[in-house]
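Researcher: Next entry in the queue.
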Amino acid sequence: MLDDLEDEPIILYFWTTPNGFKISIMLEELGVPYDVRFVDLTKGEQFEPGFLAISPNNKIPAIVDPDGPDGNPLAIFESGAILRHLARKFGAFYPANERVKADVDEWLFWQVGGLSPMAGQYNHFAHYAPEKIPYAINRYQKEVERLFSVMNKRLADRPYLAGEYSIADIACFPWMHNWKTLDQDISKFANLARWIADIEARPAVIKGLAVKKP
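Model: Structure for this entry, 214 residues:
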């Protein structure tokens, strides 16, 4: 699957989840040509051998960059790793200043290690689990609310998480954009609501969110 990819667009293995939208938004922000390959999670396509060769954890998103660092195709899974690769490769949305870069990394990893799994667990137990377990629903809802509060405080004195728009914002946005699905009261988080509205209005974000299932 990695052969004969020179001079080809980046291939994005995608499904319409917050993690998938992180990468479609990033590619639209960069203005980089890309080819979407839908991985239908409802049909178990994430377990097919061809996809597992690219994403051994059977999760989307994943990409194949036909022009990797050594000129050969490079497959990458995990959304945070993909965002950092694209930002470094194209020199955008990832600051050169090491102090500011540390801020970006902190909030990128905060999203990957905290917001995403906690919000995902809430969404599962509240909306998909065959049995409603009040303890699990309450636990994850409160944790998601706490994370919303953490980010709201961070945005009190700056427009974006690290000052300027970066991959940290791109990583967090698709999850915060889903605040209704997460049953959060956005009126409690004025700074976060302003941030969401600002990013929702970006043309590249509109295009990135418009990638739909076939």
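Model: The domain at 10-93+205-209 is CATH 3.40.30.10 (Glutaredoxin).
Researcher: Noted, moving on.
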